[in-house]
Amino acid sequence: MDIIKINDLVKRFPVGKGHFTAINKINLSFGKGEFAGFVGPSGSGKTTLLNIIGSLDTPSEGSTIVMDKSISELSHKQAARLRNMYIGFIFQTYNLLPVYTVFENVEFALLLQNISASERKKAVMEALEWVGLTDKVKSKPNMLSGGESQRVAIARSMVKKPEIVLADEPTANLDSKNSHHILQTMKTLNKELNVTFIFATHDEKVMKYLNRIITLEDGKVVSDKENKS
Ligand SMILES: Nc1ncnc2c1ncn2[C@@H]1O[C@H](COP(=O)(O)OP(=O)(O)OP(=O)(O)O)[C@@H](O)[C@H]1O
Ligand SMILES: [Mg+2]
After folding, report:
1. Quick one: which ligand is closest to 24's CA?
2. Sheet hosting strand 35-39, strand order edge to edge
3. Domain segments of the chain as ranges
4. What is the pLDDT of residues 78-131, one digit of tens each?
5. Is beta strand 164-168 parallel, antiparallel or unpaired with respect to 87-90?
6. pTM for the model
7. Which one of 22, 138, 164, 209 is least enclosed by Cβ atoms within 10 Å?
8. Ligand 1 centre and the CA of 65: distance in Å?
9. Which residues have a Cβ under 8 Å from the Cβ of 81 and sit 6 or more positions away?
10. In ligand 1, which atom is closest to the CA atom of 38?
11. Residue 73, Cα to own-chain centre: how many angstroms?
């Protein structure tokens, strides 16, 4: 069964007096447990597509169905609930909360769920262990390197063991050892808990792990291939 279905999706952004078409009639579906990624040149629409799948942005035309729910028919509150419960994001820009510590930034993803403080602590420490940051729990984002910030964002996206993780360039600031370690952790969550991962990436290291590679160019899918390496 498909966990995500995208039908005739078009996204136009207003630019000056006209508009720019960032997504140009995309049809795609993803089954539960896929480990897939969007690749393609800068500006081809990868982030735009992830944002629409994650209900952070709305399409100009077409529809997105995520976990049997048609996103455009959800109220703001229902869309927020879908995200909180089922979707983990890793943003290209991290989006960490500057006044909170590493621990609190990761814990944030769990606050809207009905979990006790001690269970939260256990889950947060486990997620920080996945990304190798247990020694930075008390640091604030401005005390972290780019790669460390990225790893906090990764921990935050996975701490609730969501149904779907949308990962925008998750390894852009990581060295090769950290990249492989994190990709292996993601793959373990994928295999053991059947978490669906969708990446946007330029990184060859990430591509090697993907089971499916979808290439975008100018807002269109130009290839969609199984990846067996
Ligand atoms: N809010 C916006 N207003 C106008 N144009 C936008 C907006 N957001 C994105 N675009 C344009 O849409 C196109 C696709 O952008 P997007 O961020 O999805 O690309 P991308 O494939 O993620 O690129 P990169 O690899 O650089 O991250 C780009 O040409 C971008 O300039
Ligand atoms: Mg992008």
Report:
1. 1
2. 87-90, 164-168, 196-200, 35-39, 212-217, 220-226
3. 2-226
4. 999 999 999 999 988 889 999 999 999 999 999 988 899 999 999 999 999 999
5. parallel
6. 0.94
7. 138
8. 22
9. none
10. 21
11. 22
